[in-house]
Amino acid sequence: MMTYLKQLYKTSYPFRFLLFGIVLSFLPLLSDLDIIEFSALTTWAQIIIFAVVALGLNLLLGFSGLISLSTAGFMGFGAYTITFLSNRFDLPFMLAILITLAIAAAIGVFIGLLSLRVEGIYLAIATLFVGEILQQIYKQVDWFSGGFSGVRFHYPQFNLIFTTIELTRNQTFIFLVACLVLVMTVIYNIINSRTGRALMAMSRSEHAAQAMGINILKYRLVAFVTSTVIASFSGILYASFMRGVEPTTWNLNLSLFIIAMVVVGGYKSIFGMFLGAFVIHGIPTFWLNEMFASIPGFAYIFSGVLIIVIIMFYSVGLIHIHHDIKKLYLKIKPYVIKAYKKLFTKKQEKGDKNA
Amino acid sequence: METTLRIFFSSLETGSVYALASLGIVLIFRTSKTTNFAQGVIGTFNGYIAATLFLKWGWGIWEVTACALFTAFLTGILIDTIIIRPASKVNPVSKQIITLGLIMIILGILPWLFGIDFLSLPRFIPITESTRISVLGASITYNAIFVILVSSTLMGLLFWFLKYTKWGLAIRVTAADDTTSKLMGVPTKTVTMISWATAAMFGTLAAIFIAPQTNVNPLMLADVQINAFFAAVLGGFTSFIGPVVGAFILAISKNLSLIYISDEWGNVIVYLLVLVVLFIKPYGLFGKKGVKKV
Questions:
Q1: Least crowded by CB within 10 Å, which of A173, A229, B62, B107?
Q2: Which of B92, B108, B230 comes nearest A304 by C-beta?
Q3: Interface contact flag, A300 B229, Cβ < 8 Å
Q4: A253: closest CA among B28, B18, B108, B114?
Q5: How many domains does chain A divide into?
Q6: Whether A30 and A92 share a structural domain
Q7: What stretches in chain B show pLDDT beneath 70?
Q8: H/E stretch holding A139
Q9: pLDDT band at A238 (very low <50, low <70, confident <90, very high)
Q10: A349 and A224 belong to one structural domain
Q11: A252 to chain B: which residues are within 8 Å by CB?
């Protein structure tokens, strides 16, 4: 049995994702046992939510080398639309999710078609502006977004045949973990499909890819739409865990933080996105903000410096750091052994002399 | 007629601010091959310096402006030498992300250095009854005239500089082909450094011009920056005159649609139109399709 599981762990990535999810699912238990604080669970949930967005953005940024600056806007779109559909039309949770994602995909196709025909910079600029419009909508269209005060939502409700059950906070957390595992698996499968191979070829050389018959526009569009849909999905998760949406959350800075997560975690990696979300959101929230309370914008400086340093000196991303640590270990191991031996023999000699 | 003229005058003023900012963006795009998303915050940072000097030390607006331009020059050189030049080998996307990282750093530094209160800056020529003239019934302030004159002179100087001086030639050849011009003995490092410094100074001027209309806050140039990007895209990133024309077209059409169509969604309509124009003419009004070699 054990060997079978080990074999599975070595060969199957989705199994690793599942295992990772199971480990994360113990966090609510820790919170109940007061080992971690109540508020820390919220931070972990946010890390999971950001990891989901980063996974989507990674497909765009890591593979097709395009920058989207409206990621936060689309997260907000997901959060607001699910609240709107659920509160106004009383749609079941799952149906509301599907409709939200479908609308997000349609918007993604529209923006992508308008801005993806030319060089990559245009997408960044077009999405910069789309993000601004979305933010303006969230602030000003009261019937949709509740204006400046935002809207309330509830934990996810599932319609069973006769009753409706609403998840508790801990169950919602596990729901988020399940979604993370799902998105990880989906992204893994996309990367290892025909689309993923095409994207990989494009990321190496667009001209070579084009020469091999890959339709650049089509795959850019696929990457952009997927990242848009996943961003909206994570917005849905946000609304369901935080039980409410506020308009000021979805600004450009959040999009920048998410880009930072992708860069810091490592382009094209899957676990890297979780690591990136943890480093960019978790580390400041858990430790640094308290340590540097006198500097109000410390989280910004931390992420900004981290982005620049990682791009300049360690562009593969933090997820690959264990390889380097291992290499370093193997490199210094002989010296360490030698030094130990020297020390040991010297001591022995001394001992001999004393004797 | 009167309203139209008034719109025209105010568009000239905002248009010149957009043009300054977008010229900075295009200069950097051409010489360092990166889209500088931090153009706005670099200007804001130096705008904060100006406002602090003005409020805390009681300097006049002219001295403050000169001082801010000097610090802008230094900021540009510093950013280029510390960050952009060592990173010149990374791929274009990562370079853009570096400028996004710069935004985060500066946004984090601002409240730490200058406090969280919003600051203010006065106009160069205070608005009173005697400092405005009326042209065919529409009045225009001396300050607006000053802003328009200064920006257009600066832009004119820049174009003259680019076209007729040796250094301008150096900038143009660096923009055309970095590697070849390096081989021909053009000091591309200095060229890039000076473009960053110039761009930072243009951004700072835009900040000081726009500050009296609102106040000095971390996001004061966000709107200008977006418009500057759109102006550059509309005019074409590959020409120097394009962004200026784009800036004025954008300013005029924005103001017209704000007044005649909708004051909430006027901006959005114009931006959508720009996107449609881009769909038809992807490289901008004055841009040329760059030749890419494999």
A1: B62
A2: B108
A3: no
A4: B108
A5: 2
A6: yes
A7: 290-294
A8: helix A120-140
A9: very high
A10: no
A11: 222
